[in-house]
Predict the 3D structure of the following.
Amino acid sequence: MSQAPSPQARPSRSLFRTKSIEQTIADAAEPGRELKRSLTAWDLMILGVAVAVGAGIFSV
């Protein structure tokens, strides 16, 4: 009896692995699985710098 190859053996197959919509919704409904929304001062500062640099590239 042969075994199925592990995901490490065939990385191209794991690249296109998908989940059904029902499974995704069920996973999201589990308690403790939601993401916390938070932006720190560091995040906002970096976002501001990125916006300034991005706008500067198109104005030159």
Q: What stands out?
A: The mean pLDDT is 80. The radius of gyration is 21 Å. Residues 4 and 21 are 25 Å apart (CA to CA). Residues 41-59 form the longest helix (19 residues).
